[in-house]
Amino acid sequence: QVHLQESGPGLVKPSETLSLTCSVSGGPVSGYYWSWIRQPPGKGLEWIGYIYYTGSTNYNPSLRSRVSMSVDTSNNKFSLNLSSVTAADTAIYYCARRQRFYSDDAFDTWGQGTLVSVSS
Amino acid sequence: DIQMTQSPSSLSTSVGDTVNITCRARQYISDRLNWYHQAPGKAPKLLIFAASTLQSGVPSRFSGSGSGTYFTLTISSLQPEDFATYYCQQSYTTPYTFGQGTILEIK
Prior knowledge:
B: 50% strand
């Protein structure tokens, strides 16, 4: 069974870059699309973007100017960078696998999430 | 972006009851609609994909229906572990978007 684990700093200063890594175990990074999704405390879910194992990406236009993702198939992990953060970026950040089901795509496997707070 | 609207926002109900949660898309999304369950402090868990197909391992008391712009999640014979927040999500086009969530509370 595939397991995802987010890692990275829990506190980032305003205007700096938030960097997170998702380590994948129990299955390959290759062959799949991998997403980042965030959830401000007590609020709903926001899709940040995805990266394919080949490195192609698709970002939410609302964050596109500040987001970059990368993938490391050798070490079975992928990463998120979000630049110029503000307090509005404080959230639980989840990594998730996008699975193709017939004609549909859904997030079938999620990490436990990691809380990132933006504060000086 | 495709806006997804769930109703109700919260629902107070009892173990053994049957509940319906609806999700409306602002535009046509075919059957590209997924449902997730999120227990407090936990990550979301996929329940239903393609509007009506149960994810492996999900109890049969969960069912989904709908297509186009209107969708329903039905939970029959509510169990204690079902009291959580439910989200719909469209995968018709990016950016993928979620409903605002429906909180299911014990009466």
